[in-house]
Design goal:
Chain lengths: 234, 462
């Protein structure tokens, strides 16, 4: 099985440990993984802002790089949805779907393709799980991360009230409408605090960057951690 | 309110609302109440998803063959004695109504709830022309008294608390203050009774137009639409052309999804199926007119992408469920149809130049699509509209330049790497590029010592 890793640009530069954790998990299951160095960004920021011709250039580049793998795995549901849901929208090439269908977010790859329900990790903390909108509503990822987290030893997994409500990130939305976006972050963080969790985790570093950014600005002590980093704790 | 009531002022309207804690609390209390009840009445139906799909399919069939079904509808309705009139825009529609009113020398109109009449500014227009026009839906009555606009399409006064309504009634109707809902309803009813009895014309909207039978279908909860469409001698219904559905039996699907989605009810209290004027039935008006309004709808029909927005049955669920709507309230959008679907309709009906901020005012979370009873891919259409905005140069030059530079860097891993290196160098010498719009309320993460690709090459590869 030829598996390629896609590490989104902002994880590459800001949260490299998430990439490291992903590699560690995949290696545990005896996969030979490749990380094509020509990769950069999936094009989502441009696509979501309406700059589709710019996004298209990157989409084409992306498909060229990843064309020959059996699977492409990424620790980001957001980028996965860009590729799997939106590439076919901007690239009219018939073969697009053949390649994009092989792209999986890490937790769904583990549970649905590898059929693994535990990474034998241990995490002695209380953790609230945050559903990223792209995971939940574009890709229908709801159970995969929960199953994997539940099987982490010593973890206390908590649900957030109104858990399917957006954290307010939304890419450029967060800077175009900072006040609205911040209010949404506030509601989310209020509900996270209510769980009493020490950590909040998610399939997406982008949500965590937003939630975490709001929390540290406002002195909230809850820490953010990407799900891969919990699952790689073995 | 008038000068700020435009999509172009969305951002400042939103800011004002965000700071108005009382208003927000009122709104969110009402939303929470409806949404939690909705979960209950939806979960009773194990085949909810099948129903949604069915509703979607019927609306699709109707819109894909709209002219065919309108033709059948018109033929049937005309045979039944309803006078069907086309209006291509708001001006035409308003003038049609005025012409009828003038012909019979009408002094007083009673109006039941109709968003289309809000869309064309009918009440204001009739009043300017000396015809008293009274809203008879309780929520609409409240916003009319307050001189405001509806903040939601099925619950127009949802931004107001009982206390505010009590004060408004005391001030405008000269009654004693009360905030008990039943009492408030009683006061409004008392005031409206005379109006119903003396009205020359009853104006209504329509929820559906059934092609098969030529029926105008109205669902409601207060009985006021029933009275508005039967007591006065003349009934004028106004409906967007998209309201047509093929068959009478389709209603069984829509009745199940509409009440639940709009007001979290299993079924609305009243349904009127209006088929023909007096002659056949004694309790019908002497004349019934149906104004079929285009007002930009054929523009939506022409676009494969926008067409789907016409499936909308105006239940308002996508507004309630939208975290942006919940944060900024309905008035901020500055357009009769607020929230996510409203942002699409505004862009299509008013033109992007008059509505540009709206498609961008969404985090694209997809809640609207998830809740929509006819499964419109609202959030995907919003992204497409953003694309249109870019194509039509509705975004700033700076933004365009940023994306050009960004693409230049992302197109080639070597340039991307050099860019990241530059950022690390800047960090080292103490310069951290900051984005105020982000940083004012949220910390921005630091660029990592080493990028993942460096770690990969040095440590992980083998
Ligand atoms: S788009 Fe869907 S949810 Fe929104 S008002 Fe229309 S039918 Fe209701």
């Amino acid at each position: 099985m030829k598996v390629a890793l896609f590490i989104p640009c902002y994880i590459d530069q800001f949260f490299p440990d998430v990439g490291g954790a992903t590699v560690k998990i995949l290696k545990k299951f005896d996969l030979k993984i490749d990380y094509p160095l020509e990769q950069t960004c999936c094009g989502q920021p441009a696509f979501n802002s309406g700059y589709w011709s710019e996004a298209k250039v990157l989409a084409e580049k992306f498909l060229k790089i990843f064309r020959n793998y059996d699977y492409i795995v990424s620790p980001s549901a957001s980028c996965t949805s860009m590729v799997r849901v939106f590439y076919p929208e901007i690239l009219k090439d018939e073969n697009t779907k053949e390649i994009t269908a092989k792209f999986f977010e890490l937790t769904e790859f583990l549970t649905k393709i590898l059929r693994v329900e535990s990474t034998e990790a241990e995490f002695n903390h209380s953790v609230a799980y945050h559903d990223s909108c792209h995971a939940l509503r574009e890709l229908g990822i709801k159970d995969s991360p929960r199953v994997l987290l539940r099987n982490v030893k010593k973890i206390k997994l908590l649900e957030i009230e109104d858990g399917d409500r957006c954290c307010g990130f939304g890419g450029t939305f967060a800077v175009k409408f900072p006040e609205i976006s911040t209010e949404m972050a506030k509601s989310k963080v209020d509900n996270i605090i209510k769980t009493g969790a020490e950590f909040v985790t998610s399939t997406d570093s982008s949500c965590l960057m937003h939630i975490g950014g709001y929390m540290s600005k406002n002195g909230v002590k809850v820490k953010t951690i990407h799900i891969a980093q919990i699952l790689a704790n073995f | 309110m008038k000068e700020t009531y435009t999509p172009l002022r969305f951002k400042e309207n939103a800011l004002r609302f965000i700071q108005d804690e009382k208003r927000r609390a009122n709104l969110n209390r009402a939303i929470h109440h409806t949404l939690s009840k909705r979960i209950e009445v939806v979960s009773e139906l194990p085949d909810w998803e099948i129903l949604r799909q069915r509703a979607h399919d019927i609306r699709k069939e109707a819109i894909e063959n709209i002219w065919h079904y309108i033709e059948i509808f018109e033929k049937k309705a005309t045979e039944n004695g309803i006078k069907v009139i086309y209006a291509s825009d708001a001006i035409e529609a308003r003038n049609q109504v005025l012409e009828i009113a003038k012909r019979i020398n009408a002094k007083l109109c009673v109006k039941s709830k109709s968003m289309v009449s809000e869309e064309i500014g009918l009440r204001e227009f009739l009043e300017e022309n000396g015809i008293e026009t009274v809203e008879t839906d309780l929520g609409e009555f409240i916003v009319q008294l307050a001189g405001e606009k509806p903040s939601h399409i099925t619950a127009p006064a949802m931004h107001k608390s009982r206390d505010e309504i009590g004060k408004l009634f005391a001030e405008k109707l000269g009654v004693e203050f009360t905030s008990i809902p039943e009492e408030l309803t009683r006061i409004a009813r008392g005031f409206l009774r005379d109006k119903f009895l003396n009205a020359d014309i009853g104006i209504s909207g329509a929820n559906f137009l059934v092609a098969e039978t030529g029926s105008i279908v109205i669902v409601e909860n207060e009985g006021n639409a029933g009275l508005s469409t039967t007591l006065p001698k003349i009934h004028i219904a106004i409906a967007g052309i998209e309201k047509v559905i093929p068959r009478l039996s389709d209603l069984t699907v829509f009745f199940k999804v509409l009440g639940r989605s709009a007001t979290a009810q299993r079924f609305t209290s009243y349904v009127s199926l209006i088929n023909s004027p007096r002659g056949q039935k004694p309790d019908s008006p002497e004349e019934i007119y149906l104004i079929l309004l285009d007002n930009g709808r054929t523009h939506l029909l022409k676009s494969e992408k926008l067409k789907e927005a016409l499936y909308c049955i105006k239940c308002g669920a996508c507004m309630l469920a939208c975290p942006v709507y919940q944060t900024v309230g309905g008035h901020s959008y500055g357009w009769v149809y607020p929230g996510p679907i409203g942002s699409i309709l505004a862009s299509a009906q008013l033109g992007l130049e008059k509505a540009t901020p709206l498609p961008f005012a969404s985090s694209l979370c997809g809640k609207c699509h998830e809740i929509c009873p006819v499964k419109i891919e609202i959030h995907h259409i919003l992204v497409w509209l953003r694309h249109q905005a870019v194509e039509h140069k509705r975004t700033s030059r700076t933004e365009k330049l940023i994306f050009k530079l960004w693409l230049f860097a992302m197109k080639d891993a070597k340039i991307y790497k050099a860019g990241a290196k530059l950022l690390r160098f800047l960090k080292k010498i103490g310069i951290k590029p900051s984005l105020k719009a982000w940083s004012r309320t949220r910390e921005f993460p630091q660029i990592a010592e080493k990028s993942f690709r460096e770690i990969w090459e040095k440590e992980l590869k083998n």
